[in-house]
Amino acid sequence: MKFFKLAAVSASLALLAACGDQGSNTNEPPAKPATQQEAPATPAQDAAAAMTDAAKAADAAADDMAAAASDAATAATDAATAAADEATAAAAAAADAAGEKIDEIKDEMKEGDKPSGE
Q1: Using CA atoms, how far apart are residues 50 and 69, in angstroms rounded to an integer?
Q2: Cα dihedral sign for 73, 75, 79, 84?
């Protein structure tokens, strides 16, 4: 009988050690309540967020493309202006050369010689 009592006391002590002290110690902080988890996003919310991000990216890309197109148009305008200036200078030089040649021919005609161009 003593054996059974000893076994029962040992089992009780083992159970107490396994379960731990169940709140009799006032120095322990209270147990923290379980944290509430956020519900996972639904596929519709994920899709809406992805579409919003895509729209923002497309808007930024459109702004970048508009700026690049504006820069290209400015460069093309500058190049056209430079080409027009060069063409004007070339036309003026050609007109001056033609005027000089005409003056030479007139002078030769006055002297009675044949034009040097023939």
Answers
A1: 28
A2: positive
